[in-house]
Amino acid sequence: MQVKKISGVTGVILAGGASSRMGSNKALLLHRGGRIIEGIYRTLANIFEEVIIVTGTPQLYNFLPCRKVPDVYVGKGVPGGIHSGLVHSKNLAIFAAACDMPHLNEEFIRYLCSLSGSADLVIPSTCSGFEPLHSIYRRGCLSALEEILKGETGRRVTDIMSQVRVRKVLLKEIALFDPEFKTFDNINTPEEYFRFRCSTIKPPGADLIMHMKS
Questions:
Q1: Which of 59, 56, 48, 63 lies closest to 17, judged by CA?
Q2: How many structural domains compose the chain?
């Protein structure tokens, strides 16, 4: 049975990072017979009626059937990407995700969307801190984001939290959908990518061995 898509929220993939630690474009790394960003796109396209990619190099993602939009404030990192997603979205809210998050959890994203009616920002809070690249932003965040983007460099997305209505999503809520908290994993270095690949590629004959044990 096909699950109904969420209206009023746009899925936004931020693909504008320099990938300096990786040494190559993280979005285009191979994963499950395709590229990481393809899996992210499929997940978001299954949830949202509109998906867009924020990127300064749209030609790299011609294989994905969605709009590619540039930053309004160029060179401003994550705050600039989220701002651009909100500006270009057809909807009043967006779900923003990074282009290197291979373990997105569809049910958890739907849960975040269900909380967005009474908040400008719905943001998960983990032991590592807040997760701004796995959050819901409404248009009410725009003025606070623009203040950051027009101000001093080095400011973070979470600096807007004192200026907007925030719904923090706590560990106990996240654990209901993702007990291992893998949904926030991303890939920054060749070593992390190697470990990720080793954890997802089955050795030859693995399925046969599991069948014989069952």
A1: 56
A2: 1
The pTM assigned to this predicted structure is 0.86
Q: Where are the alpha helices (DSSP H) in the chain?
A: 36-47, 77-88, 106-114, 142-150, 171-177, 190-200, 206-213
In a domain, 1, yes or no: no
Measured distance CA(44)–CA(5) in Å, rounded: 10
161: confidence class by pLDDT, cuts 50, 70, 90:
very high
Mean pLDDT, rounded, for 41-63: 96
- Is 171 within the bounds of a domain? yes
Q: How far apart are CA 206 and CA 212, in angstroms?
A: 10
For tokens 């979005």, name the residue.
Answer: 27
Residues 178-189 as b or e (16 or more Cβ within 10 Å = b): beebebbebbee
Closest by CA to 158, choosing from 136, 132, 122, 126, is 132
From the CA atom positions of the chain, what is the Rg in Å? 18
Pairing of strands 121-126, 67-69: unpaired
Structure tokens at 20: 């300096």
Instruction: Establish how many alpha carbons lie within 13 A of residue 197's alpha carbon, considering only the half-sphere containing its beta carbon.
Output: 13
Domain ranges, residue 160:
8-213
138: confidence class by pLDDT, cuts 50, 70, 90: very high
